[in-house]
Design brief:
Shape: globular
Number of strands: 8
Strand content: 25-35%
CATH superfamily: Nucleoside Triphosphate Pyrophosphohydrolase
CATH class: Alpha Beta
CATH architecture: Alpha-Beta Complex
CATH topology: Nucleoside Triphosphate Pyrophosphohydrolase
Order of helices and strands: EEEEHEEEEHH
Number of helices: 3
C-alpha cells in the first residue's frame, strides 16, 4: 500500500542568515534547481546534534565557511512543506517538508574562505544581497519563510 505523502513527517532542520560587514545576506544558487532561485544555507539536524552545532556544520559543509560569530538564535521555528511536484522525491521521499530553527550570524572571515565547490556540492554560485532582496530570489514554496526571516532580522539589525 502506498504511503499517503501528506502523512510524512517534517524533517528537523536549521538555517543560517549570514551577514557580512555591510549587513548584506549570503545566498547561493542550488545545483538541483536550474532556475534563478537563491537560498540561504540550511540543512537537516543529525541524530544527537543540537540546532546550533547543526547550523555550524551545515554552513561549513555547504560553503566552507568557518569564521562566523553568532548574533542571535531567532525565536521559534518556521515550517515549510514541499510542493506536490517534489513530494516523495526530495530527501529520498522520507519527509513532506522542514521545521527549521534559524540563526543570525556574522561572517568574520575573508571572502577567499567561501567555497561552494565542496565535497558534496549543493550550490553553483554565491553572492551577497540586500536583506530586502531575499524574498525576490527564493523559490515559491519557501517565500513565507524568507518573509518571516526578513522581518525578524530587520528588528535585530535596525
Amino acid at each position: 500500500m502506498k504511503k499517503n505523502l501528506s502523512e510524512l513527517p517534517l524533517r528537523s532542520g536549521v538555517g543560517i542568515v549570514l551577514l557580512n560587514d555591510s549587513n548584506k545576506v549570503f545566498v547561493a544558487k542550488r545545483i538541483d534547481n536550474p532556475k534563478n532561485f537563491w537560498q540561504m544555507p540550511q540543512g537537516g539536524v543529525d541524530e544527537g546534534e543540537d540546532f546550533l552545532k547543526a547550523a555550524y556544520r551545515e554552513l561549513e559543509e555547504e560553503t566552507s565557511i568557518k569564521n562566523v560569530e553568532l548574533i542571535k538564535e531567532l525565536e521559534g521555528t518556521i515550517t515549510y512543506e514541499l510542493p506536490d511536484r517534489l513530494l516523495g522525491i526530495i530527501w529520498k521521499g522520507k519527509y513532506r517538508g522542514q521545521k527549521q530553527k534559524w540563526f543570525l550570524m556574522r561572517f568574520t572571515g575573508q571572502e577567499q574562505e567561501i567555497n561552494v565547490e565542496t565535497k558534496n556540492p549543493e550550490f553553483l554560485d554565491w553572492k551577497w544581497i540586500e536583506l530586502d532582496q531575499i524574498t525576490e530570489v527564493v523559490v515559491d514554496f519557501k517565500l513565507h519563510v524568507y518573509k518571516e526571516l526578513k522581518e525578524k532580522v530587520k528588528k535585530i539589525i535596525n
